[in-house]
Amino acid sequence: MIKLSVTKAAAEQLVKELKLKAGDGVKFYPDSNNHHPVVHGPHQLYAIDNHPDRVVAKDTVGEINFHINFEDEWFFIGRKVTVDFTPADGLTFTFVGNDVNAAATIDYEKFLM
Questions:
Q1: Beta 90-96 vs 80-86: how paired, if at all?
Q2: 3-29: per-residue pLDDT in tens?
Q3: Taking the complete model, does pTM exceed 0.90, yes or no?
Q4: Measuring CA to CA, how many Å separate 65 from each of 20, 24, 41, 42, 47?
Q5: CB neighbours of residue 67 within 10 Å
Q6: Could you confirm whether domain 3-112 is CATH 2.60.300?
Q7: More reliable by pLDDT, 112 or 52
């Protein structure tokens, strides 16, 4: 299970940076170069995504929908993910949980076939 939490400061920064409007969505995902060993660092990727595909975690701040799609579950699984923003550090991701569950799910493997 994944718990996604986006702070008000992070949401406001993303609205400004991505020029979001009410009802827009943002997906969070790992860098495609992040393979084994997986690094759950403070900087991950994000993009506008108004048509999410099989959401596994979501948070809504204001009228913006933030989510993680099924294809990226392998990276975030078993963690509480907090997205925050400070002027000094920019947009940062904090992960709480352990690496025991960090692996592709069997459902994802079946999806690829």
A1: antiparallel
A2: 999 999 999 999 999 999 999 999 999
A3: no
A4: 10, 6, 23, 21, 12
A5: 21
A6: yes
A7: 52
